[in-house]
Design goal:
311 residues, alpha/beta, L-arginine/glycine Amidinotransferase, Chain A, 3-stranded mixed β-sheet, 9 helices, 27% helix, globular
Length: 311
């Protein structure tokens, strides 16, 4: 089992904008006043293309698929929420909270990956849970420690506990369940996705433990990370609001490891945190200001890791 992969899937947006259906519980989204939708999308495309270029320049194998204008999928740039790919050839499809995000699931993407030589043995489909109002949004909701077979999940309207446990049973992961909060207008509200407040690398974990208000739960999460030999790098809630938890470690040419994040996340880190991280991995950052503001997601959300075997 590997924790990081060299292959990722990314979806290039064609009509990116702030999704009115997700803003109800994604407190990171903002309206960019005075910008026409076409301008927002053009800026998002520029950020996307520059990001892909940086990844491919260090030897990451990026499969880029263009989104389609119909149906309307303003959040298609975040594919890791609807699909995950596993080393045994399994693919999981996930139930999505926002109705317009459900259209992001496109079967032809699987065909395209098979054409590229990836092997898919089995599709595990959880999407029928949408009919009953239960959701689990892929590796936004689930943080997988693939090597140690543990899955971390901060419960929220987009991460249902029973579904999470079902996933863990299907994929042989031990569940680590907790609640994480952020302050919104001086109220503590559930964080919508686990991957906003923590990131798991091969040898380290970045986490905003201040978000886990229950002290027992906080200790339990930190103990699980320590037990697996992860160096813990703590971030503050202010840094988390700059997407410093929304990072992903990948490997490029010659198996060199890179921790991928946005420029805003990188800038929010202290010199000491950067030093801690650079003992483990090299930082690769790219400006994603428009995508972060309108989409309320960042670098990690834009990359669906492909662990599938290859022909």
């Amino acid at each position: 089992m590997k924790q990081t992969t060299n292959s990722i899937l990314m979806i290039r947006p064609v009509a990116f904008r702030m999704n009115e259906q997700t803003v109800v519980n994604n407190y990171y989204q903002k309206v960019l006043d005075g910008l026409l939708p076409a301008t927002v999308n053009a800026k998002a495309q520029q950020e996307f293309d520059a990001f892909v270029e940086k990844l491919t320049a260090v030897g990451v194998d990026v499969t880029v698929v263009d989104d389609t204008l119909e149906p309307d999928t303003p959040d298609s740039i975040f594919p890791n929420n609807w699909i995950s790919f596993h080393e045994n050839g399994d693919v999981a499809l996930y139930p999505m909270f926002a109705e317009n995000r459900r259209h992001e699931r496109r079967e032809e993407i699987l065909d395209l990956l098979e054409e590229k030589g990836f092997v898919i043995h089995n599709i595990i489909d959880y999407t029928s849970a949408e009919e009953d109002g239960f959701f689990l949004e892929g590796t936004g909701s689930l943080l997988l420690d693939r090597v140690n077979a543990k899955a971390y999940c901060a419960l929220s309207p987009r991460a249902d506990e029973e579904l999470f446990i079902e996933f863990c049973e299907d994929f042989d992961y031990a569940p680590v369940i907790f609640e994480a909060f952020q302050t919104v207008d001086s109220e503590r509200k559930l964080i919508y996705h686990t991957n906003v407040m923590m990131c798991l690398g091969e040898t380290f974990a970045v986490i905003c433990s201040d978000c886990i208000d229950d002290k027992k739960e906080r200790k339990m999460v930190l103990d699980n990370l320590k037990e697996n030999g992860k160096e813990i790098i703590l971030i503050t809630e202010v840094q988390m609001n700059n997407f410093a938890g929304n990072m992903l470690e990948v490997h490029g040419a010659n198996d060199k490891r890179y921790l991928v994040m946005s420029a805003a996340a990188h800038q929010s880190l202290t010199p000491q945190q950067i030093e801690q991280l650079e003992k483990h991995t090299e930082i690769l950052s790219s400006s994603l200001d428009t995508i972060e503001a309108c989409g309320g997601g960042s670098a990690r959300c834009m990359m669906a890791e492909i662990f599938l075997p290859r022909n």
